[in-house]
Fold this sequence. Notes:
Elements: H1 10-15, E1 20-21, H2 32-48, H3 52-72, E2 80-83, H4 86-95, E3 104-108, H5 113-124, E4 129-133, H6 141-151, E5 156-160, H7 173-179, E6 186-190, E7 209-214, E8 226-229, H8 275-290, H9 294-315, H10 318-322, E9 324-325, E10 338-342, H11 346-355, E11 358-359, E12 361-363, E13 366-370, H12 379-391
Parallel strand pairs: 1-11, 3-4, 3-5, 5-6, 6-7
Antiparallel strand pairs: 2-8, 7-8, 9-10, 10-13, 12-13
Helix pairs in contact: 2-8, 3-8, 9-12
Amino acid sequence: xxxxxxxxxxxxxxxxxxxxxxxxxxxxxxxxxxxxxxxxxxxxxxxxxxxxxxxxxxxxxxxxxxxxxxxxxxxxxxxxxxxxxxxxxxxxxxxxxxxxxxxxxxxxxxxxxxxxxxxxxxxxxxxxxxxxxxxxxxxxxxxxxxxxxxxxxxxxxxxxxxxxxxxxxxxxxxxxxxxxxxxxxxxxxxxxxxxxxxxxxxxxxxxxxxxxxxxxxxxxxxxxxxxxxxxxxxxxxxxxxxxxxxxxxxxxxxxxxxxxxxxxxxxxxxxxxxxxxxxxxxxxxxxxxxxxxxxxxxxxxxxxxxxxxxxxxxxxxxxxxxxxxxxxxxxxxxxxxxxxxxxxxxxxxxxxxxxxxxxxxxxxxxxxxxxxxxxxxxxxxxxxxxxxxxxx
Length: 392
């Protein structure tokens, strides 16, 4: 069963009617509800001026926290902090690692740039020691990574739920969190390609692991609205801290130490643009109103992937048919919402598709095609036909 939600995305779809957007994993279209919420943010800013922050903190943030918690099965919505990007959270997590020693980090070799670049730079100066577990072969990654965590000796274990450069899964998150040794080791899952794409029940790890993601991709809310679930008892006083991190502690008065909230606010920064919160709240409300679930979106996208692969074979598009499909389309293979083709001509093909107004993206020799709930099954054949004309 597939969805047809095209009528709910009229602003983005109508802005460039000839565009074939197959990069939902990179930049997701916003539903009309989010577009309306963006305008509401401006209206509230004009109407309330300085007083808008009472609305943001008193109503908007709790609404978005509840929406996220519902989709991750979190037991406590107040563990969620917000930031304009996940790199803010990476910095604060790194700043919470033990002082006076070189922190030991366990991760994969396929993390996104916001983490990979940061730890590589710290590694250059000998400030961290990093162990990277190869993501491939994907089938054995969960056990290889869990085995590395069981060896212990790590201050930070950081891994993606879905790898950005392949769509492969890191495996069950509870199994990874449960394998980590060291009572105070920080366990962090980058859920940017998992949240609102894969059904994710995080309750089993909510007391042990951090989970970060954002609105730019599958949450359909655009830039500037990222979040992190922050388990109680871990990294209670990050050194990289903004004044919003004290909101939960302001009532406690003075003291000799810098004060922090005891909930997710301890990872907050400082003044930010709240418009993304408006959009994300509207996405959650829209989904609830029409009965749209993450499970339904996931089933829809997997069905579109299968249709796409079948149409490529039917159209005999040789470069893509001959390329390695990095993460296979198979019922027993967990995967994200994009297809990754590995071929030497990836950049050239991407550029030819772009000239034909077919939007994809490329990472080295990997060409990625992504699908979302704003695509309909009947559009796949036409999209593949356009691809055939562009690169055939």
